[in-house]
Design goal:
By secondary structure, the protein is mainly alpha-helical. The chain has helices at about 5-15, 20-25, 35-65.
Amino acid sequence: MAKKREHIAEAEEIGYDSWWLNNFSQLPLRASKARQIAALKNDHEWQENHMNEISRRIDQLIQRIESE
């Protein structure tokens, strides 16, 4: 069975969905250590939550393909 275009599109969307260290990158060059650490912790938390969402989306795509 060939891959369906909609499945390919969803898989590509999932693959492109990534996050740069946005909070950290927005800090000024002279940001204190405390601000750098806080920004990295925020980026880490977002990244972790985001990866859980990506995993859920992959699971949903698998289930959709299996059920068709």
